[in-house]
Structures are given as C-alpha cells and as structure tokens.
Amino acid sequence: MFNPIASYRIQFNKEFTFKQLDDQLEFFFLLGPGAIYASPVFEAVPGSMHGYNVTNANALNPEIGKYTEFTALSDKLKEKGMGWIQDIVPNHMAFDSKNNWLFDVLEKGVYSKYAGYFDIDYEHPGLQKKLMAPFLGKTVTEAVNEGEIKLQTFKGSFVFRYFDNLFPVNFTTFQIICQKYLQNTPFFFYQILE
Fold it and tell me: Which range marks the domain in which residue 144 is found?
C-alpha cells in the first residue's frame, strides 16, 4: 500500500494547469513530499477555480490540460518515486446545463439511464415524481409574467431559460407545449427561435 509521509496539495484551475505544474516539478522534488495531492481534475463548469462543480467525471477538464500532459506528469513523478493522490469528488456535481447526466435526468426523470446515479426521492408524496430545485427568486407565475422564464431550444431539446440557468422540458410538458403552440404556429416558431 502506498503510504507517503507527506504530500503537497495542488489546486488546479485555468490559472494553474498541468503544464505549469510540470514546469515546477524540480522545485517539488527538492521539497521532498512523497506525493502530489491533486484537486479535482475532471471536467467542471467553465472558469471553475476549484473543480468541485464537476460536469463530466469521465473527462479531464480541458482548462487545466490534456491527457498527454497528465500522463507525462505521471511518468515524471514515477521516475522520482513520487505518487499522485487524486481528489475524485464523487459527491460533487454541478447543477448546470453542461452536466449531461443531470440534464438527462431532468428531462426523462425515472426513465433516464442516469437516474440511479442521483439520490432523488421519486416517491415523495407531495412532488408526484417531480424534482424540486430552489432557483426561482419569486413564484413561477410572477417569473413567467415578468418574462424571466423563456421557452427556447438547446441541443435539440426544449428548455426553459431562467436568466443563465437552463432546465430541460420533460416529455409530458413537451406534449403540452406542442398541443398549445402548434395551434398558433407563427407564435410557436417565434418562441423557439427567440
């Protein structure tokens, strides 16, 4: 079992990348830690300074580097007998439209292939298989009447936009939208294209 005496914490973000760590490795070798303890390196919300708002746990964050840079770092550490401890944050995912798993769950609910990865109580008696998320600064009626919630398309799906937040329209709501707005085709297309 790998058991380093000391480690050095590295905070990766767009301002400190794999390349920048590579440029400073000799300094870390002189310090003598047994391992680099790396902040999350997975794809996160663009501009994330900490990496705890993961959007894709199956890909490296392109803002901090490429896979080839990551493996080159790993090889250099191995040559010097240093390890790499990775903070994987499996319990941190961003509630963001760039999180494809969450977006799929919001759109398809229990029928999403990712539904089992999220701790959602679909049997809650007051929510009727719906997920409640606290994003509105007022009631739904007020937000709609004031034009803060808009119907748009995103990645081939209907979404509701609330300022910078996008929420996919589920299948039931999609049918309601089509039935209502197809009766007034020009208005329907205007809403989609806006």
Answer: 133-193
